[in-house]
Amino acid sequence: MRTQVAIIGGGPSGLLLSQLLHRKGIDTIVLERKTRDYVLGRIRAGILETGFVDLMREAGVSERMDKESFVHDGTVIAFGNEQFQVNFTEHTGTPVVVYGQTEVTRDLYDAREAMDGKIVFNVENVEIHDADSDAPYVTYSVDGREERIDCDFVAGCDGFHGVSRQTIPLSVRKEYEKVYPFGWLGVLSETPPVHDELIYANSDRGFALCSMRNANLSRYYIQCSLSDDVEDWTDQMFWNELKRRIPEEAAEKLVTGPSIEKSIAPLRSFVTEPMRWGRLFLCGDAAHIVPPTGAKGLNTAASDIHYLYHGLLQYFEEGDSEGIDRYSEKALARIWKAERFSWWMTNLLHRFPDQTEFDIKMQLADLTFLRDNREAQSVLAQNYVGLPY
Ligand code: RFL
Ligand code: PHB
């Protein structure tokens, strides 16, 4: 088989790239290790920057999103019983959009199928060969058959545990990592959200977040210990703990119900440099991870796709390699700022095991400064709605 761009990974990054390129007549094949249902079963991000929304429009997959998503002009930050709003639209002229990653992925799969896009599911033993030559190729097995795809470029969109990043030799690759000493326990429940905007809460008992998917689907998170077993957290224990971490006013209004999904995610900051090796390009979680506190995971994946898509277009349509040559530099410049923002939000809002009373006073000073200072709120707003591409 031959294609122009072999895409490893059928998550949001790989699907979006495939869809954008296909609409410009550039051929791709997506290789996905799991099934479509498995990918759609993963409950992850919920907040889209307008840059992401624009990319979905450019990909021709925004119809349902435009109808069903919710626009949020701001967010609530709480500490103890105090709370204040940071208004994004007032500070930046831009809101954010609430639309789950599951829905984004479903829309992209539907669009790929409607265009007869080639996606191979259940692939195993994916290997990228000769990425540093002019003739790269990918081998894999599916249903017991060995297959080979020759291509011009390989896009490594296979997430943090994928093979693409490992293909770059250690002599070339440098990784930067910070692992946080806690996780997030998330619950999805068919209940009305407690508030019409998100609430990020710092409390003595640890962080909590009230988010949502729609008018009758809430998503809540609480900071938990990494040694916790999700099975030990009954729904009742979760709701009780959440109520103790958010302002009383919100706790009193909270509607509880059975969880329809419950999981624990570890928190990590991670960047690999460079994001290009020869004809292999890393995108999204394959290249970088942020703690979810700033809602940047999916959104940084989208900015990578934006840079790579335009670079590939420039190459295939104009024969100019400037865009792909500068891909790593452009993507990383934006990513490090999103890493900083996510790290800052995480530090501002969580309880750390080794935190001293002094450290807690510093958090409180940071929070009250943010509450009282327009410029500080503007900085948060600019980062939250997404820095320019
Ligand atoms: P994905 O979504 O991980 O997709 C990668 C795809 O590649 C497949 N794959 C392979 N395919 C072929 N061959 C191989 N060798 C392969 N290895 C892996 C995988 O099956 C998968 O389908 O990466 P992508 O597309 O870059 O998208 C990135 C986003 O998914 C990610 O940034 C966010 O979901 C991060 N994230 C969150 N971000 C937020 O903004 N808000 C959140 O609340 C939030 N929650 C989360 C998250 C990530 C989590 N992970 C990775 C465990 C919660 C979790 C649990
Ligand atoms: C979510 O709704 O899942 C969500 C929202 C905001 C975050 C993280 C997760 O910062």
UniProtKB/TrEMBL annotation:
An individual GO BP term: benzoate catabolic process
Residues covered by the FAD-binding domain: 2-342
GO MF terms, alphabetically ordered: 4-hydroxybenzoate 3-monooxygenase activity; FAD binding
UniProt keywords, alphabetically: FAD, Flavoprotein
Pfam families in the cross-refs: FAD_binding_3
InterPro entries given in the database record: FAD-bd (IPR002938), FAD/NAD-bd_sf (IPR036188), HB_mOase (IPR012733), RIFMO-like (IPR050641)
PANTHER family: P-HYDROXYBENZOATE HYDROXYLASE (PTHR43004:SF3), TRK SYSTEM POTASSIUM UPTAKE PROTEIN (PTHR43004)
UniProt protein name: 4-hydroxybenzoate 3-monooxygenase
Species name: Actibacterium pelagium
Gene: pobA
